[in-house]
């Protein structure tokens, strides 16, 4: 009799413990909600800034500071071209400028002196006119010499090739010691900060796109990327009859790289679907499921098939759940309760 009572006490204790754990399990009621219907298109990530830096000076390549796959910041020196000729031209231009400045100073002094003498009626008007003309001529020559200095400085600066924007070097077209002339390709690169998605839009989808349909990039992990600007090309491809579209992405997408394939979702309407919190989804090996809690408090793992993410925290369920069912919000805690059920034979 004592043994029977002891067993009953243990059973009641286990049942109470399991019941308490099930009661403490947070759960939500599954229901259908209005959800956007989307059409998925294949897109390609590309860099907005992708270019080849060409030489604007002639000379031998003297130094190269970056190579393929190196990251460069805007304004970094990529390479140096020997500047002997350009520096000599600048020195010559500066010498000419100094000479014209000295002549201008002399002409200015002569003009001021002649004006004073003319004011005292001690010199003819023609002398004043000559002095004024000489002063204006010297001023013009000095202006031309200054322009020559600026041009020479610009030519000298062109021997130092700098990065037009921050990015990655993709190609190097020259080697140290090679001759470069104006127009010679030096380096190619692209920026990872400004990216966009190019996608081919079928002709049948054009009315929806033109009406301002919502479009988003879909990452491999299901996260959604909002486009800050959409450009639709008005000419269809003569072979596929599809229209090209570009979606500009927000800056700082460091998990995307040019050349990657990516899905683009286009909203084509709405319908009622089951949507659940992402935190309630359990991943067990190759099985994706949720823990369903029945009306008796019994927990079971149910296989489900997920669809499109609806936000950063919610995902659509294509099959495996019905409206009115309850699921556990915490799959880890629900798994513990399920194991306890198995041990207690509930």
UniProtKB/TrEMBL annotation:
<dbReference type="GO" id="GO:1990281">
    <property type="term" value="C:efflux pump complex"/>
</dbReference>
<dbReference type="Pfam" id="PF25967">
    <property type="entry name" value="RND-MFP_C"/>
</dbReference>
<dbReference type="InterPro" id="IPR058624">
    <property type="entry name" value="MdtA-like_HH"/>
</dbReference>
<keyword id="KW-0813">Transport</keyword>
<comment type="similarity">
    <text>Belongs to the membrane fusion protein (MFP) (TC 8.A.1) family.</text>
</comment>
<keyword id="KW-0732">Signal</keyword>
<feature type="domain" description="CusB-like beta-barrel">
    <location>
        <begin position="197"/>
        <end position="267"/>
    </location>
</feature>
<protein>
    <submittedName>
        <fullName>Uncharacterized protein</fullName>
    </submittedName>
</protein>
<dbReference type="InterPro" id="IPR058792">
    <property type="entry name" value="Beta-barrel_RND_2"/>
</dbReference>
<dbReference type="InterPro" id="IPR058627">
    <property type="entry name" value="MdtA-like_C"/>
</dbReference>
<feature type="signal peptide">
    <location>
        <begin position="1"/>
        <end position="20"/>
    </location>
</feature>
<dbReference type="Pfam" id="PF25876">
    <property type="entry name" value="HH_MFP_RND"/>
</dbReference>
<dbReference type="Pfam" id="PF25917">
    <property type="entry name" value="BSH_RND"/>
</dbReference>
<feature type="domain" description="Multidrug resistance protein MdtA-like alpha-helical hairpin">
    <location>
        <begin position="90"/>
        <end position="159"/>
    </location>
</feature>
<dbReference type="GO" id="GO:0015562">
    <property type="term" value="F:efflux transmembrane transporter activity"/>
</dbReference>
<dbReference type="InterPro" id="IPR006143">
    <property type="entry name" value="RND_pump_MFP"/>
</dbReference>
<feature type="domain" description="Multidrug resistance protein MdtA-like C-terminal permuted SH3">
    <location>
        <begin position="274"/>
        <end position="327"/>
    </location>
</feature>
<dbReference type="Pfam" id="PF25954">
    <property type="entry name" value="Beta-barrel_RND_2"/>
</dbReference>
<dbReference type="InterPro" id="IPR058625">
    <property type="entry name" value="MdtA-like_BSH"/>
</dbReference>
<feature type="domain" description="Multidrug resistance protein MdtA-like barrel-sandwich hybrid">
    <location>
        <begin position="51"/>
        <end position="184"/>
    </location>
</feature>
